[in-house]
């Protein structure tokens, strides 16, 4: 089961997804320090937790690790959506409520996605 992220976890994952390259704790720390005061050990601990949760892959480089996301932000978000739908109890009703709340932009994105990947059994 995929877990939701806390505020700092989410911030760090957003940074990691935006880099499109591996990054060290120091890289993320320097990036975050442009906006807030934060300790190296705090960033290191959160990145270790993200690794434990299976969201970051790491490999040793010298005395440190470099990290990279295991999947894209879109893939992670899709997994959260699937898990929420699976837990809903009534998938059809949940989807109806979801569709009722879509903005025009979101509805257009859904239509475009269905053109690229039509539902199984419908071509």
Structure description:
The chain has about 120 residues and is mostly helical. About 60% of the residues lie in helices and about 10% in strands. The protein has helices at about 5-20, 25-30, 40-50, 75-85, 90-100, 105-115; strands at about 25, 55-60, 65-70. Strands 1-3-2 form a 3-stranded antiparallel beta sheet. Strand 2 (about 55-60) and strand 3 form a beta hairpin. Helix 1 packs across helix 3 (about 40-50) and helix 2 (about 25-30) packs across helix 3. The radius of gyration is 18 Å and the shape is elongated.
Our count of helices gives: 6
The residue ranges in which pLDDT falls below 50 over 5 or more consecutive positions are: none
**How many beta-strand segments?**
3
The profile of the biggest β sheet is: 3 strands, antiparallel
Widest β-sheet, arrangement of strands? 1-3-2
In which range does the helix fraction lie?
A: 55-70%
Topology:
Layout: H1 7-19, E1 23-24, H2 25-32, H3 40-52, E2 56-61, E3 64-69, H4 73-87, H5 91-100, H6 104-116
Antiparallel strand pairs: 1-3, 2-3
List keywords for this structure.
123 residues; mainly alpha; 3-stranded antiparallel beta sheet
Describe what is shown at a glance.
With 123 residues, the protein is mainly α. Helices cover 59% and strands 11% of the residues. It has a three-stranded antiparallel β-sheet.
